[in-house]
Amino acid sequence: MKIICLDLEGVLVPEIWIAFSEVTGIPEFRRTTRDESDYHKLMKYRIDLLNKHNLKLVDIQNVIQKIEPLEGAMDFLASLRKTSQFIILSDTFEEFAMPLLAKLAHPLLFCNSLKISPEGMVSGYEIRKENGKMHAVLALKGLNFRVFSAGDSYNDLDMIKESDSGCLFRAPGTIKAEYPLLPSVETYEELLLKIREF
Amino acid sequence: MKIICLDLEGVLVPEIWIAFSEVTGIPEFRRTTRDESDYHKLMKYRIDLLNKHNLKLVDIQNVIQKIEPLEGAMDFLASLRKTSQFIILSDTFEEFAMPLLAKLAHPLLFCNSLKISPEGMVSGYEIRKENGKMHAVLALKGLNFRVFSAGDSYNDLDMIKESDSGCLFRAPGTIKAEYPLLPSVETYEELLLKIREF
Lengths: 198, 198
Fold this sequence. Notes:
The structure is a homodimer.
Chain A (H helix, E strand, L loop, with lengths): L1 E5 L9 H9 L14 H14 L4 H9 L7 H11 L2 E8 H10 L4 E9 L5 E5 L5 H11 L3 E6 L5 H6 L2 E5 L3 H6 L5 E2 L2 H10 L1
Parallel strand pairs in A: 1-2, 1-5, 2-3, 5-6, 6-7
Antiparallel strand pairs in A: 3-4
Helix pairs in contact in A: 3-5
């Protein structure tokens, strides 16, 4: 039996922090896992930036409420659901993800959670499991699933490498250049084809 | 972070083999995991019975196409999806489950698969993982999820016991009598309450 693991941001929905950067007009929020391979460094940078601008969880959630799935993502998921089971593996936080899941017709998501101060500021975060995407793949393989994974960022690489098969999806040129042997696709049609081959 | 594990048949949809028994008029197909604790013995019995009556996979699938979710199940899932993530853990087979998943709005299902002869007869089955429901719970706990499980049959007991919390749902009196310490509920409202308490 097979199962498909998909990254969330950049694969099914836009990058949340980039959308937040655009709405707030603060370009420093544009930095994502596509640019920075050290996730803890990236999150510390983001929390410091939120504090500096006195931005609360609710400000981020208000932006997320307006985010829609990427063009073609819902058709892609509809096709995928006809033949396959899938899980979304993301390093995002449940406080961000819940409204996005509703828009994606409630797929299963494994992610992390935030720590929120009494004043509603993001004070920290809880990583459910270090390198959680990769460990989810290993757990699924331990349950005797054959696993295919797709993602676009540094934090997807271990997930893809530990899977039975997989590919990059719309990854930035830097990652594709660093990992020239990883299959890489740009459209949902190509991704569906890869999954069907698997 | 929390996750809910639900049995499929008897919890969200009717027992497939009981429906099949009713349509075929062959009462011997009524035997389920609610009556027989040895799953391999039960499946051997079912396959022998299918062969005896020359019934093919397609005959079972034709019955399954007509099965609808239990009354209230879709409202229950809609409420659950607002607040929680869930997985369906079942010992059924993907060849049976796919049309049912569509009717349940495509939740994630972990199950098994059938072996089908060139003539379309059920010739055997492949258990993805022995005691798969329980191992799925252990895998989720290994990923640092807190797990709540609910089911109605003998094959749900290890799943419930290994979870952080859980209950029986509409279990037969025999199981409730054997396991008087396991919490037990009869309605979706009660089940939602248990999940909320968790």
